[in-house]
Design a protein that fits this description.
The chain is α/β, with parallel strands linked by helices and 303 residues long. The chain contains 8 helices and 14 strands. The protein has helices at residues 3-6, 20-35, 56-65, 83-96, 144-152, 157-170, 196-199, 275-285, and strands at 41-42, 71-76, 99-100, 109-113, 126-130, 181-183, 187-189, 208-213, 218-222, 228-230, 258-262, 268-272, 297-298, 301-302. The strands form 4 sheets. The protein has a 7-stranded mixed sheet with strand order 1-9-8-5-4-2-3. The protein has a 3-stranded antiparallel sheet with strand order 7-6-10, with no helix packed on it. It starts with a helix and ends with a strand. The mean pLDDT is 94.
Amino acid sequence: MRLNELTKEWADFNYGFLDESAKRELRRRILKAVAVPGYQVPYASREVPMARGWGTGGLQVTLTLLKPTSVVKVIDQGADDSVNACSIRKFFGRVGGCVETLDTQAATIIQSRHRIPEEKLRDGQILVLQVPNPEPLRPVQPDMSAARVMHGDADYSQLWLILYEQLVKFGRIMKADQYPSLVNGRHVITPSPIPRWDVLKLHQAEHLTILSAGGEKRIYAVPPYTDVDPLVFDDVPYRVEDHRDKTCYRSKVTGFFMNELPQEDGSSKFELSDSNFASKHIRKAEGQKVEIGETWYKNGRMD
């Protein structure tokens, strides 16, 4: 056998990079995840031109949903202009011929790492969240087979115990991100590494949220108008980050989730984590005509 007999003629990549069988499987898994909110559906995570742990799960879901008329926005910890966000967004444009955007209101698909935009997402938009660890029971049950049995029995008592121990030891629940939340009154999920601030945005939202972990090969979803309730005790209300008195030094906007920027003199500056939201306010202050959508929060409080 000769070497040229083992090679194939050059051919273009399939539309959206993934082959059609991979897309069919992912679509079926997504449909099941939507039908059973919060349930972790296993799937055959494919190789993509990105290292696992850098958003391969979200990448595969977005590539599956992609079509030439899609308008795609990619966020990395609130920023549209980071290396990771720019690279992924350009990749979608190259393999899918879709429209790239930074505007939350214009996007039909929003892939995000660690944040949900401040502007409300509407019906018809899809939020794809990258997830490094989809299993909320892992801190209490490292055996995944036993964890799945616990999910089947809706046995989340050990999660409640961890929250109680934190209250006793620290006087408050210390879980800052990936806060365990009950979806549709049945399955507890870890809602990606989004901060507490963003968890409430999933409750009865108009948009579909798909969470995908490429390394763990799991997909789960929060359909529109679905209850998402953080695990809290009746006498200890759920608390989000208190950013009511924080003002963005660039946009002068107050009452939204901020990034803290330590200064050389020991002080700190704050800037809006949602970079596009900040950019809109800056352009509006300069007199440009900018459309800013409704927000979930008003003055640091949930609307």
